[in-house]
């Protein structure tokens, strides 16, 4: 990745009731929030109508904001097989919308995203939201935390892709870090995490 020209990254937190998204703009080592929100699906009872709506809305967001890359949270493995199936379909349709626009697509496990933002792979949505707000210097919070989760996915991709080894090895290395690979145990607090990872503090 080159850092000379500003570019945008879209993050998506797949869901079957609310699908969170966030777009950041990168210029050098500076990040800024472009847009953040959620796609409301909870009133739709027809699962196929939901999938079509996800495809259309994600495609429209990409058309409007022109991110260079799209990162998604990969479905977690839970006990409810039906829920996992529905979530996987939602993620797949969002991914297809990005691929139909010739965008590079990346996946990250939930624990990896939380660790990239907070330093703790088991952090709560509220902790993720608070640090996203702090790092991007936001003066507001969205109504639902799905939106900050989506923004966290975009930021996770930025932090992962800009490490020296991943820059040297290219996009295939970054793609290989997603999906099924869990994050290692993180630091116990934001303060200790930032001491170990000063590049995470955005000036």
* Largest beta-sheet characterization: 5 strands, mixed
How large a portion of the residues is in β-strands, by DSSP E?
Answer: 15-25%
Q: What is the helix/strand order? A: EEEHEHEHHHHHH
Q: Total number of β-strand segments?
A: 5
Strand order in the largest sheet: 3-2-1-4-5
Mean pLDDT: 84
Structure class: alpha/beta
Q: C-alpha Rg, in Å?
A: 16 Å
Which stretches are poorly predicted, pLDDT < 50 over at least 5 residues? 173-190
Q: Helix tally?
A: 8
| Terminal-residue CA separation | 21 Å
Query: What is the overall silhouette?
Result: globular
Helix content: 40-55%
Describe the structure.
37% of the residues are buried. By secondary structure, the chain is an alpha/beta fold. It has eight helices and five strands. It has a five-stranded mixed beta sheet. The chain is globular and about 45 Å long. α3 (110-118) packs across α5 and α4 packs across α5 (145-161).
